[in-house]
Hints:
Number of helices: 9
Structural class: mainly alpha
Amino acid sequence: MNSKEISSKNKTAFWSFKLSAHAATLIPAAVGINYVAKVFAESLKLPVWLGSLGTFLASMLAGPVAGALSGFINNVVYGLTLSPISTVYALTSIGIGLAVAWLKQRGFFKKPVTVLPAAILVALVSAVISTPLNVAFWGGQTGIAWGDALFASLVAKHVNIWLASFADEFVLDLLDKTVVAYLAFLVYKQLPLSLRSFFAGGQA
Length: 204
């Protein structure tokens, strides 16, 4: 089997919707990272959520299913323990997990310079999924003061509520996902190559 065939096989494995035993062992840790990071951000009233750090890492290490499940489970657990509305945003976490895995597969997390466009794309995915939820449950707001100030300003200028809500969500996601993407990138690069290969089936 030549190198191209091996690469193609590895890519197929990375995107398989079967969850390997190796990937399954990563999910509880990723959920824990998400949970602690979000509690940390909320307790300090940071202008970001940080609750997708574990999702990023799981997607980068083990692919889309591990990332999507890590995000989904965290939102459910967080919703049952601290913030019930968090459960609704499990849909957003699934989208983030899939997006990060897709970007990782295309080399966006190999160099610092390409992490920023990856963060922007993930922020866009997150905002597109979250905006309808924000409109339905929060009247278009996000619950983060400075983002909601932008929303209020736009609504006062008679901007459509959907556009105002999207702007509110996107500016917050842009900051949050940029911070999280670089944190995940730094952690990922510090992991031994053997550990990365263990989870990714050779796609380190």
